[in-house]
From TrEMBL:
The chain crosses the membrane at residues 6-27. Belongs to the SRP receptor beta subunit family. GO terms for biological process: Golgi to plasma membrane protein transport; intracellular protein transport; protein localization to Golgi apparatus. It comes from the Eukaryota. GO terms for molecular function: GTP binding; GTPase activity. This is Signal recognition particle receptor subunit beta.
């Protein structure tokens, strides 16, 4: 048989194989679970990195203050989440939070050290205010927020039910201050008269998390104890459930 007779057949077979391979690749990519990005943020020493490592490894590991973002993709049931642990240092966290929120995010876990909250309530509420305003200004209205009241294994820890009204009061004060702080800016870099730099437009109104367009949940948790602990609030069980529900 002459090679000129075989060549068209060989080309046809090769074309079919390449086309089939390409179709299978596209189907596999389209059917693969979509990765969801979740930011883990809070002030220094709130326990973010310990929680991050616990979610990654299942173990309690000692940490040092983070100088850069940590990222990992734990598989939680049917949900594939890329968790980004934001450093607690003020200048680093502002830059990284803004950079990450400009991209698509599915949620934000805001971690609070519930054992020392009343000593650092100003810093905690200011960061939370900035994060919520950023979510609003960047139109990330589909993103969910979990405020995790961490370190519930400590006797001095306050529960989420007691911290929630305190945070709402602090955010109300910050909202009023922002409305009247002419010419000042927030982490968004937008002048204060822009409605995106405040949570409420009514200066006399009291802020409540239920008034936000984004969904905000609260939970009690701890990264120190394992899943066999009898009290769910002293583990990361609620955090895992929330991540699985995204």
């Amino acid at each position: 048989m002459d090679i000129s007779d075989i060549l068209p057949f060989a080309i046809a077979v090769l074309t079919i194989l390449l086309t089939t391979g390409l179709v299978l690749y596209v189907i596999r990519r389209l059917s693969a679970p979509k990765e969801k990005v979740v930011l883990l943020c809070g002030v220094s020493n709130s326990g973010k990195t310990v929680a991050f490592l616990r979610l990654m490894t299942g173990m309690f590991l000692p940490t040092v203050t983070s100088a850069s973002a940590n990222e990992g993709t734990p598989q939680l049931g049917a949900s594939f989440v890329r968790l980004v642990d934001i450093p607690g240092a003020e200048e680093l966290r502002r830059m990284i939070i803004l950079e990450k929120l400009k991209k698509s995010v599915s949620g934000v876990i805001f971690m609070i050290d519930s054992s020392t909250y009343y000593k650092e309530s100003k810093e905690v509420s200011e960061l939370l205010f900035e994060v919520l305003c950023l979510l609003k200004s960047l139109k990330a209205k589909g993103a969910k927020v979990l405020i995790a009241c961490n370190k519930q294994d400590l006797l001095s820890a306050k529960t989420s039910s007691s911290l929630k009204p305190s945070l709402e009061k602090e955010l109300s004060v910050l909202n009023k201050t922002q409305m009247f702080a002419l010419g000042s800016t927030t982490v968004t870099g937008v002048e204060s008269h822009d409605s995106n730099t405040r949570l409420l437009d009514d200066p006399s109104g009291q802020f409540a998390f239920d008034s936000l367009q984004m969904h905000v949940d609260f939970c009690d948790c701890s990264s120190k104890t394992n899943e066999t602990d009898l009290k769910e609030e002293t583990t990361l069980s609620f955090v895992k459930q929330w991540l699985n529900g995204l």
